[in-house]
């Protein structure tokens, strides 16, 4: 059931993003449309087992690539919301370092045909720090006359925080996949399903409440 709801929300988020595209005057929101299209294609291929390779039809190589792609996209999205250039440069450097390690982990440490859980945990850990930093800066600029619930960035980052925390805790316990595979599979479906439902629900709200900024802005 959670998987069906998740798929419905992903499709809904894509079409709402498509219909709201003209109202997006920030590059980072416009990039959601091709991102969501790629994610939907991945979900379709994964559901139909199009990525299976080898005798076991393993699709872990595709999972590694999808999560790395997700990491780069959301890193850019969050970093582009920071106002100070030093902040952007610092987290851009961290992002590139983690991505470089991810490539090393995929190619030389754990291998592309195995789930690169070490790199994935680090990726989600860094993303959690980025989102928390965003909220810290947001609270510093908080104006009582401004309703946070009307800010798209608030909704997107709220969904991301729940999603990243869930994925971080899940992949941090990846050893269960070897000791108790059935339990791990059940946990995966529940955690992944709930995390995606929260994320895409928040994305839909963000797209719906988005209002174009009339004044010129230097931020992406």
TrEMBL record:
The reply on keyword Transmembrane helix is yes
This chain belongs to the protein called Uncharacterized protein
Q: Source species, please? A: Mucilaginibacter mali
Q: Which UniProt keywords apply?
A: Membrane, Transmembrane, Transmembrane helix
Q: Enumerate the transmembrane spans.
A: 6-24, 31-47, 59-79, 91-112, 118-139, 160-178, 190-210
Which branch of life, at top level? Bacteria
Taxonomic classification? Bacteria, Pseudomonadati, Bacteroidota, Sphingobacteriia, Sphingobacteriales
């Amino acid at each position: 059931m959670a998987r069906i709801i998740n798929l419905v929300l992903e499709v809904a988020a894509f079409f709402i993003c498509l219909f709201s595209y003209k109202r997006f005057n920030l590059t980072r929101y416009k990039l959601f449309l091709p991102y969501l299209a790629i994610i939907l294609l991945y979900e379709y291929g994964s559901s139909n087992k199009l990525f299976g390779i080898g005798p076991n039809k393993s699709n872990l190589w595709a999972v590694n690539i999808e999560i790395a792609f997700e990491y780069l996209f959301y890193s850019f999205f969050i970093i582009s919301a920071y106002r100070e250039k030093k902040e952007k440069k610092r987290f851009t450097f961290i992002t590139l370092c983690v991505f470089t390690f991810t490539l090393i982990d995929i190619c030389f440490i754990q291998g592309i045909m195995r789930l690169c859980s070490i790199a994935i945990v680090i990726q989600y850990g860094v993303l959690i720090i980025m989102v928390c930093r965003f909220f810290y800066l947001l609270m510093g600029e908080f104006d009582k006359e401004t309703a946070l619930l009307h800010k798209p960035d608030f909704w997107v980052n709220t969904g991301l925080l729940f999603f990243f925390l869930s994925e971080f805790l899940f992949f941090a316990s990846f050893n269960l996949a070897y000791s108790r595979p059935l339990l791990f599979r059940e946990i995966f479906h529940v955690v992944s399903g709930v995390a995606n439902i929260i994320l895409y629900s928040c994305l839909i709200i963000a797209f719906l409440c988005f209002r174009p900024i009339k004044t010129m802005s230097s931020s992406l």
